[in-house]
Amino acid sequence: MAKYKLEYIWLDGYEPVANLRGKTQIKEFNAFPKLEELPMWGFDGSSTRQAEGRNSDCMLKPVAVFPDATKTNAALVMCEVMMPDGKTPHPSNSRATIFDDPDAWFGFEQEYFLYQDGVPLGFPQGGGFPPPQGEYYTGVGYKNVGAIAREIVDTHLELCLAAGINHEGINAEVAKGQWEFQIFGKGSRTAADQVWMARYIMLRLCEKYEVDVNWHCKPLGKDVDWNGSGMHSNFSTKHMREVGGKAYFEALMEAFDKYKNEHIAVYGPDNHLRLTGLHETQSIDKFNYGIANRGASVRVPHSFVNNDYKGYLEDRRPNSQGDPYKIASRILQTIATVPTK
Ligand code: ADP
Ligand code: MN
Ligand code: MN
Ligand code: MN
Ligand code: MN
């Protein structure tokens, strides 16, 4: 038997964006614990905006477990928040009731800024801006990426891979101090669990560098020539991958247009600051799609058109603070309205 450090991690009740919370318990196991071996646990919901003070206990239900490579005998345990009965999902639990389909594949491109002392890494401390955007995207060299960002993003990648998170890549982004990682998963919950866990690992890693992760979609404001942060959501269902066809694609896009407001409602807060029609975005109140068009709401890859309209599509509207559970669910909900015949 060995003592395992189990970090139970959950989403709190803050709106419009939940924070990640975590606390550790120690349990003995013969080997790295399986999900079904992990017990439920409780926490004080009155300190996380999830309960009133008088009846404050909420329950944590483990739903996914990942090795924690920063310690020996340690696990990161993604949890859903349940009511005190342990059975009813808490209203803040966005995972419990979503549309899921194990045959739906998602690739999330999480963009974010690394911040220190209130400004993006590499911005002058006293105010003002570094040289304009141009060389930062996929850039190299101190003047483009600074001194510590590379160590952070490379370490993050190692920790996530060691945890079994299915990273597909990382890159420096268009703004100084802005970065991206991509995660691919099968099924809404599987893919979204990994995004939340990767966010957690990034936040925790950055503590020792005195760096904060700014997930806001337009941290530098709307009126400057600096990019915002998205979480482009690439998706495909079995039908899209195996049957596809132009008529089905057009019907799908019609449904996406019809439900555009419902999509925007779960695509992250303050998205009107980001979806302006500039900086590789479409305006928030319009829906369009385009082949290889990075100014469209949905980008259709060349590979999709060249393959008889089979494959995946990229919804470019979700932002960096969006909840991937809700985003994946909404995409599947809209797809479900389109007959496959
Ligand atoms: P770009 O920056 O050009 O938009 P990225 O390479 O950053 O592209 O992201 C593309 C994403 O598409 C990857 O995260 C990948 O996992 C995802 N993807 C690839 N194939 C599929 C598929 N069949 N279904 C869903 N997502 C997919
Ligand atoms: Mn956040
Ligand atoms: Mn990308
Ligand atoms: Mn990007
Ligand atoms: Mn993209």
Describe the structure in brief.
Helices cover 24% and strands 27% of the residues. The chain has helices spanning 142-145, 149-162, 188-206, 238-242, 246-258, 260-265, 271-274, 302-305, 324-335, and strands spanning 2-11, 20-29, 41-44, 57-67, 74-82, 105-116, 119-120, 167-172, 178-186, 212-214, 231-236, 289-291, 298-300, 313-315. It binds adenosine-5'-diphosphate (ADP) and manganese (II) ion (4 copies).
Description:
β8 and β9 form a beta hairpin. This protein folds into 2 domains: 81 residues, Ubiquitin-like (UB roll); 232 residues, Creatine Kinase, Chain A, domain 2. α2 crosses α3 and α3 runs antiparallel to α9. With 341 residues, it is of the alpha+beta class. The strands form 2 sheets. Strands 6, 7, 8, 9, 10, 11, 12, 13 and 14 form a 9-stranded mixed sheet that branches. The protein is built from 9 helices and 14 strands. One manganese (II) ion binds next to loops.
Sheet of most strands:
9 strands, mixed
Order of helices and strands: EEEEEEEHHEEHEEHHHHEEHEH
The backbone outline, from C-alpha atoms, is globular
Oligomeric form: single chain
Instruction: Please tell me the CATH architecture of the largest domain by its name.
Output: 2-Layer Sandwich
Name some characteristics of this structure:
nine-stranded mixed beta sheet; Creatine Kinase, Chain A, domain 2; globular; Ubiquitin-like (UB roll); 2 domains; five-stranded mixed beta sheet; 341 residues; 9 helices; binds adenosine-5'-diphosphate; 24% helix; alpha+beta; binds manganese (II) ion
Secondary structure elements and pairings:
Blueprint: E1 2-11, E2 20-29, E3 41-44, E4 57-67, E5 74-82, E6 105-116, E7 119-120, H1 142-145, H2 149-162, E8 167-172, E9 178-186, H3 188-206, E10 212-214, E11 231-236, H4 238-242, H5 246-258, H6 260-265, H7 271-274, E12 289-291, E13 298-300, H8 302-305, E14 313-315, H9 324-335
Parallel strand pairs: 1-5, 12-13
Antiparallel strand pairs: 1-2, 3-4, 4-5, 6-7, 6-9, 6-10, 6-11, 8-9, 11-14, 13-14
The structure holds adenosine-5'-diphosphate and manganese (II) ion (4 copies).
